[in-house]
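Weekly modeling sync, notes
Attendees: S.R. (lead), two postdocs, one rotation student

Agenda item 3: backlog of single-chain predictions. S.R. asked that every request posted to the team notebook include the full sequence so nobody has to chase files. The rotation student volunteered to paste the first one in as an example of the format we agreed on. Action items at the bottom.

Example entry:
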Amino acid sequence: MAFELKMPKLGESVTEGTIGKWLKQPGDKVNKYDLLVEVQTDKVNTEIPSPVAGTLKEVKVEEGQTVPIGTLLAVFDTADGEATAQPSAPAAPQRASQQPQPQAAAPQAPKPSQPGGAQAPQGPGAPAGRGPSAPEGAAPLPTRAAPPPPQSPSPASQSSAAATATAERPDLSDVRATPAVRKLASEQGVDISQIEGTGLGGRVSRKDVEDFIAQRQSSRQQPATRVVQAQPQAQSQSAPVRQAPVPSLSGDELVPLSQMRRAIANNMVQAWSAPHAHAVMEVDMTDLMRYRERVRGEFQEREGFDLSPAAFIAKAVVEALRTVPSVNSSWTDQGLIRHRELNLGYAVALGEDGLIVPVIKDADGKSLAGLMRSIRDVVDRAKARRLTLDDLSGGTFTLNNTGPLGTVVSSPIVPPGQAAILSSESIRKRLVVTDEDAIAIRQMMNIVIGFDHRVVDGSTAARFLTAVRDWLQTTGASVPVY
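Predicted structure, as returned to the notebook:
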């Protein structure tokens, strides 16, 4: 039997992927779950396992090609009928084989006078004939509800209704979904066989069911909303082209946008739609840097890598978020969401390729050494393109450590879904007038907060910066590394 492998959906905002390398070649025998192909997206690189066992017959997308989600990638000759792992291929023959049964049983039913009784034997063909309404799932529900109106208590009508339901709904064992997802679909009155799964091998996820329900409700209750919103969206997308014409000059070279660069551009446009404000504060890092020099040798010997000032800054941010928890929030039209979890995004520069922000989960539960290990881990894996989607999700606040790049003051943009971001600038020796009116050489650093002014006010931002500064200047040098 033939099995078609399609490009799976690899994340909420991922719409396409680039084939990096085929790990198997046409003619190779493949076991189930063998790694098959490397796929690169704007967020992560991942390896897709084979959902079936068999022989790789044909590769449809060559290495280096970028294709949208759902594109046919390869065809297999499967062993022992394992093509049933993807419901889209075998579903049509099964429904076709079941189709004659309701047609034969329909004349024996107690002659329903309503149109629903006549439509029931059509089975899966009915949604296809209804055109655009079929994917929204609205058509099958009235069909299943059609038998009760004739009010016939006879067993014959009950068996006819059962046959109708069987004709319309294929064997749900062919649908790949967890018991929890099946239960959710059943509770919401949704035929799970009508939902196109976006998971690996066509698996139906909880979000697929929720999106299906939301789409159905919006199509029924607010049919005109999309038309009203479509015009402003089209205008906003075309506006940059009109406002920023690009002159054609001799020697110009067009550099195609990478997936990551395009994703960064889209995210920044979305992020900048929030009203931004910034505040800057100086921090005297002299005592903390001396403390770091005392402990870094032992840390290097024990861990195998250096104790960076970034670990101290991350710890200061964590403690400041405890002091000013309103900064660890998100804006919604319904209200502000205060996050209990403290997941610290840590921006990593990838040179000309752009930047990426992996997330250190539960940062408030880590020691200095724990934060340093986490920073080192996400930086190494980001530069090696080995991050997973889970590494990039769930951030509640972002730290942008631009100091190693040599900047003194920057204006960071708040990531979408967060309330603020902090940039730690380069640490430099400067002449400073002390509280005793003496002139001293001190190691100074600027910290900059960018914040969404809908969520955070200037006074709150200043309190947060003060909390970061005070921890670095006073507490930091007395905090144990482990």
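Discussion: group reviewed the output briefly. The chain has 14 helices and 19 strands.
Action items: rotation student to repeat for the remaining queue; S.R. to check formatting next week.
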